[in-house]
Design goal:
It contains three helices and ten strands, in the order ββαβαβββαββββ. The chain has 177 residues and is α/β, with parallel strands linked by helices. Strand 3, helix 2 and strand 4 form a beta-alpha-beta unit. Helix 1 crosses helix 2. It binds inosinic acid (IMP) and magnesium ion. Magnesium ion binds next to strand 6.
Length: 177
């Protein structure tokens, strides 16, 4: 893999498509065991998580549902500190086993905004699965059940993650040079 340019910034290869897919298969195996017989409902947090949710969900066995919410906090390469819910939860989650699917947990603000909205719906169990986590950037106490990769506090693009809307279609993940 080679360096790439997205708008004005240069990015270097970080996680190959094969590496990402292998880890997703491991996460799916864990989730299949953890939710066996429960008809879990997956919640994909748009926009960034759409590819991760797709590749993960197609490896989930048995009865499972998926729904989508849309939250946004980023502008360019920095968090604005304000989380907006652009598309909220419109499904019944009472007594359900819920799996939250996130692309990346950075400051943890999105998750700490979303979890109380979810709790109001009375789910039986909430499992958080995030493809990436930046432990150094975390500002909120969160119990993240499943992490694909712990990464440095550097901006990344690709595989659903964007820089100002671009880079989401890259099959691999790249880190800011
Ligand atoms: P948090 O609310 O600070 O945890 O950030 C969560 C959201 O910010 C993620 O779901 C992403 O959409 C976005 N984000 C955080 N870090 C990055 C990054 O390095 N690249 C692209 N998007 C990011
Ligand atoms: Mg996101």
């Amino acid at each position: 893999m080679e360096e790439i340019q997205v708008k004005d910034l240069t990015f270097v290869p970080f996680l190959s498509s094969d590496t990402i897919q292998a880890r997703i298969t491991e996460l799916a195996t864990i989730l299949n065991k953890e939710t066996a017989g429960e008809q879990p409902i997956f919640i994909c947090i748009l926009n960034g998580s759409f590819l991760f949710a797709t590749d993960l969900f197609r490896q989930i066995e048995g009865d499972a549902e998926i729904t989508f919410v849309k939250m946004a906090s980023y502008s360019g390469t920095t968090s604005t500190g304000k989380v907006m819910t652009l598309l909220g939860l419109d499904v019944e989650l009472y007594d359900r086993t819920v799996v939250i699917v996130e692309d990346i947990i950075d400051t943890g603000r999105t998750m700490s905004e979303f979890l109380p909205q979810l709790a109001k719906k009375g789910p039986k169990k909430v499992i958080i699965a995030s493809l990436l986590v930046k432990p150094e950037a975390l500002e909120h106490q969160l119990d993240i059940d499943h992490v694909g990769f712990e990464i440095d506090n550097r901006f990344v693009v690709g595989y659903g993650l964007d820089y100002d809307g671009l880079g989401r279609n890259l099959p691999a993940i790249y880190q800011l040079k």
